[in-house]
Amino acid sequence: MAEIVLDSSAVLALLASEKGAERVRAALSTSVMSAVNVSEVIAKLMERGATSDQADAIMNRVPVRVATFDRDDANATGRLRPTTRDLGLSLGDRACLALALRLGADVLTTDREMAKAKVGVKIDSVR
């Protein structure tokens, strides 16, 4: 089964049992996330009131492989900026897309704007 790259918004939907959570849960066995997106999830959990230790524990319970973010990923993420600027995609969004491009994988997100990006990978909005 092919890998699925999860955007931070997909994991947050899973953790909050929001619409689309079941689709994310179904993809977990073959999923991967960029370390950049993990940091986004941690930050959002803390904004919502979790302590640092709680946020780490919550994220550590998500059975997802975490891909490192190296110089090649940084370069690829930067190169996506011109083609995604009009959609308002963040650094994290572009890091997710760069990982999907590197792996030849599809993306799961809740971000409808991100799902409109034409970058060479399938981007599926779970909402």
Task: Explain what the structure shows.
The protein is built from eight helices and five strands; from the N terminus they run E-H-H-E-H-H-E-H-H-H-E-H-E. The protein has one domain (4-125): Rossmann fold (3-Layer(aba) Sandwich). The protein has helices at 8-15, 21-27, 35-47, 52-60, 71-79, 81-84, 91-103, 112-115, and strands spanning 4-6, 31-34, 65-67, 106-109, 123-125. It has a five-stranded parallel β-sheet with strand order 3-2-1-4-5. It is an alpha/beta fold. The longest helix is centred in the first third of the chain and has 13 residues, at 35-47. Helix 8 links the parallel strand 4 (106-109) and strand 5 (123-125).
Note the main attributes of this structure.
127 residues, alpha/beta, Rossmann fold, 5-stranded parallel sheet, 8 helices, 5 strands, 53% helix
Brief write-up:
With 127 residues, this protein is α/β, with parallel strands linked by helices. The chain has a single domain (4-125), classed as Rossmann fold (3-Layer(aba) Sandwich). The protein has helices at residues 8-15, 21-27, 35-47, 52-60, 71-79, 81-84, 91-103, 112-115, and strands spanning 4-6, 31-34, 65-67, 106-109, 123-125.
